Amino acid sequence: MKNQYFGDYRDMFKYDLIQEAMKKNKGFKRFSFIPMLTDFKECNDGNKRYYNSEKIEKRPGFGNTDLVGYLRDYNDKVRDRKNRDLRHIRDYFGAYINIEIFEPDEPMQGKYFVNKNRSLYFQAIPDIYLESALVFVDPDNGIEVKNSSKKRPCRNPLTNSS
C-alpha cells in the first residue's frame, strides 16, 4: 500500500466490503486497518481516479454512493499524489464505525513497511486492535477485481479446483 494509491477507484471494492461486513456483524467493535505502507514510487500505478465516468459504474462498490462521493471529493481536493494520505479514510469510516489505523512507531522501524522487519511490524500491532475487530491487512501489491461482470466458477483455494 502506498499513500499515492489512496483514492484510486479500485478502493471502492475493499472499503465497501469492509463497511458491509461491519454492518452485518454486530460482534465487531472496531475496524482495524493495517496498511503495509511502502514508500512513494514514481509510476502511474494507483491513478485510476475517473469517478465521473461510465467506466466505474460496473465496478464493485459503485452502489455505495456515500463512499463514491467521499472518494470523488477527496480526489478533487488532493490532486498531487505525493500529498495523498490513506489515513484520511478515517474521515469517511469515522461517521459509521470505530476505526483504528496502525502506524508503526518511527524509532522501531521507520515510517514504511519493509520485508526484513515483517515480524517486528506485526508484533507491534496493539492487542486492542485485534479484540472483537474486523482486521484488514492491506498489502503493498494491492487488491483488484479484474472484471466483475464476467462469471467465473468458484475455486476451492486448497485444491485449486471448481
Describe the structure.
The chain is an alpha/beta fold and 162 residues long. Helices cover 26% and strands 9% of the residues. The chain contains five helices and three strands; from the N terminus they run H-E-H-H-E-H-H-E. It has helices spanning 11-24, 65-77, 89-93, 106-109, 118-123; strands at 30-35, 99-101, 133-138. Strands 2-1-3 form a three-stranded parallel sheet, covered by helices on one side. The chain is globular, with a radius of gyration of 17 Å. The protein starts with 10 loop residues before the first helix and ends in a 24-residue tail after the last strand.
Helical content, roughly?
25-40%
**Helix count, DSSP H or I runs of 4 or more residues:** 5
Q: Alpha-carbon distance between the termini?
A: 31 Å
The averaged pLDDT comes out at: 76
DSSP summary, beta strand count: 3
Q: State the secondary-structure class.
A: alpha/beta
**Numbering strands along the chain, what is their spatial order in the largest sheet?**
2-1-3
Largest sheet: 3 strands, parallel
Computed over alpha carbons, the radius of gyration is 17 Å
Blueprint (SSEs and pairs):
Blueprint: H1 11-24, E1 30-35, H2 65-77, H3 89-93, E2 99-101, H4 106-109, H5 118-123, E3 133-138
Parallel strand pairs: 1-2, 1-3
Give a brief outline of the structure.
This protein is α/β, with parallel strands linked by helices and 162 residues long. The chain is built from 5 helices and 3 strands; from the N terminus they run αβααβααβ.
What are its keywords?
26% helix, 3-stranded parallel β-sheet, single chain, 162 residues, alpha/beta
